Amino acid sequence: MSASAIGYRIRERRRELGIxxxxxxxxxxxxxxxxxxxxxxKRAVGGxxxxxxAHLLELETDILTGAVERRLxxxxxxxxxxxxxxxxxxxxxxxxxxxxxxxDWSRAMLTLYRAYLxxxxxxxxxxxxxxxxxxxxxxxxxxLTHISSIRSSAEILNDVADxxxxxxxxxxxxxHDESTQLSEAAQHLVSYFEQGDMGNRxxxxxxxxxxxxxxxxxxxxxxxxxxxxxxxxxxTQGRRNLGGAVSEFLQNRLGxxxxxxxxxxxxxxxxxxxxxxxxxxxxxxxxxxxxxxSTTRRFQMIRAAALETSADLIxxxxxxxxxxxxxxxxxxxxxxxxxxxxxxxxxxxxxLEDAEKCRYDIEILRQKYDAGYEQVCHRLVTLRDPRAEGIxxxxxRADPSGHTSKRFPQFGFPLPRYGHACxxxxxxSAFQTPxxxxxxxxxxxxxxxxxxxxxxxxxRAGAFHSQPVLFxxxxxxxxxxxxxxxxSDGIDFDSPGTATAVGPTxxxxxxxxxxxxxxPAISILGE
Length: 527
Prior knowledge:
The protein is α+β, with helices and mostly antiparallel strands.
């Protein structure tokens, strides 16, 4: 939330506590007129004065400044970009004031919008299923054929009064047989739809998990401690290789069996495998596809161990009020288990020290820890311990279609949550040079500049018949931190032509004359 909304929050909180403006000004040691200017958002507040205000109003500084609700404000700013709202002249900048004055109403609006997106997605998937699914088309065709046959036989029985008994019996038998087959086809069709799950991923649940993680700044001290304890448990196995130690720990200490499934097996046998593995907690069985790389196997084994050994801790954390459904809580559970796994493989203190030494060279970190490129990027984003903080990175993962499947924002870096991002971001051009690191100095309409580092990664590769799935991963930091990274070497930051002029997403971009624009900006709709 921008500083312009702090005054509203100060005023609302002061009124909640029954403190007069004059009294609050007196306790702060400032004049009543200056206090009035602060509450009217005509004077900035920070430093010692902000800390004293937070203390007197019995609020955390982050809550008073709106840092914990900045994500809510950013989300609301994107709503006008939806074509459904194009006829309403909504000003994105007023989202800050709305959140500051009416946070609950703002959350209600966002909840309804997410439900709307969920329903639209379900309808689109169902429509596509009805139009393209060959099994449905065949079933409908069979039903129409049976109905036509039944109708034809029934018309003959109705229209021909002197039909011979033998022929009448034959037509009645035909109606009976066709009716039976029609019933079977209909039941088959109904059972097909009753399977329910069309692979539709609830956007509402996903967004709630994102809100939960970002509200904690993607750093969980208790999970870091749990990861350290779990890593010590692995080290007691007397094995130098972490993967081997984890395997022994799962089988000998937790009673979890580990199986390898032939990747050429029937697809029905490997259905449900995510990230090339399947963990059945009830049966205590962890199965991998044969083509799963060693980094994936190690990560998923540690993740399974985390789900078992840190179950109570995770259960407490996911009682957060932001997680309103069982689906969002389960998604959060899986995310927190992944957090522990990343923290085990890449221990916080040592990893931060190594990152600083090599100036955040992701490839060097990947090789040192024998980790995946995306795993390292994920860990960089979690270096948020206030006592020892790394560079604040934003994170984005996209596929070749432009769909963004993972994201973590940073202040000032506009990561859109709905729709596509700016096509000029190098996370999308990275597909043109697979597996090579691409860097880009990007400047947004606000004047803020960020260094973007992108590279493609592959999933589900390793076998001849396995179709590789390519993603692009990007981390981005404010240009103020760029010189701490190896990726700033050779860039002339002072040259006016070095930075690429980019935007957040077309409908929210102020660069109206951009030749790459795909959609009109909301500020010029209707003009």
